[in-house]
Specification:
The chain has helices at residues 7-34, 40-45, 78-87; strands at 49-52, 61-66, 69-75, 116-120, 131-133, 148-150, 157-158, 179-183, 186-189. By secondary structure, it is α+β, with helices and mostly antiparallel strands. It has a 3-stranded antiparallel beta sheet, with no helix packed on it. The longest helix has 28 residues, at 7-34.
């Protein structure tokens, strides 16, 4: 007894089975591969954070979170940049010798681009969050105030680069995290700049 095999039907069934298996593999692999991508919580805990500063107005400050700490990005005005030199004689560490910042931020502006200050918004005394007091001669701070950051908890004062004033309880300048400019309008906090190399 001889049976004829229908090879066209066999090829159709083999192709259908292979296609079903491939679709099933993709459906199973998709959530698995997606789990490798860091979550928003993981990003905040240490992964670099990309920040769009293209719409940040001159004189305004943006607050974001990185590693569970506030990061401040201040777009300084030309007048703010001039105030840096005015404040220098009154600073405890004007050249940031005893402070935490990348090598490329060890300058008067403490930044890659003088216009943008990127730093942790944490007082180096006890970890409070200072207030932004950018107005010169702000009476809530003092009549000779040159503008900067003021920590109301214990009275620490910082200039517009986060450098601590003499006599403040804070032991050092505010911390500048590693960062880089991806474009003129995007900053990546948590990754060192190529300019440092």
């Amino acid at each position: 007894m001889s049976e004829q095999v229908d090879y066209s039907r066999r090829r159709l069934l083999t192709a259908a089975t292979a296609l079903t298996g491939a679709v099933g593999a993709v459906l199973v692999a998709t959530p698995f591969l997606a789990s490798w991508k860091p979550s928003a919580r993981a990003k905040a805990m240490g992964a670099p954070v990309e920040i769009d500063v293209s719409k940040l107005e001159v004189g305004a400050m943006l607050k974001v979170e990185w590693r569970g700490k506030p990061v401040w990005i201040l777009r300084r005005t030309p007048a703010m940049l001039k105030q840096l030199a005015v404040a220098e004689p009154f600073l405890a560490d004007p050249h940031s010798d005893g402070s935490i910042q990348p090598a490329y931020a060890k300058n008067d502006a403490r930044s890659l681009k003088p216009e943008y200050l990127v730093m942790l918004g944490v007082c180096t005394h006890l970890g409070c969050s200072p207030l932004s007091k950018f107005e010169v001669a702000d009476v809530t701070v003092s009549a000779d105030w040159p503008g900067g950051f003021y920590c109301p908890c214990h009275g620490s004062k910082y200039d517009l680069s986060g450098r601590v004033f003499k006599g403040a309880p804070a032991p050092s300048n505010m911390t500048v995290p590693p960062y880089t400019f991806l474009t003129d309008g995007k900053i990546l906090v948590g990754a060192d700049s190529a300019a440092a190399a």
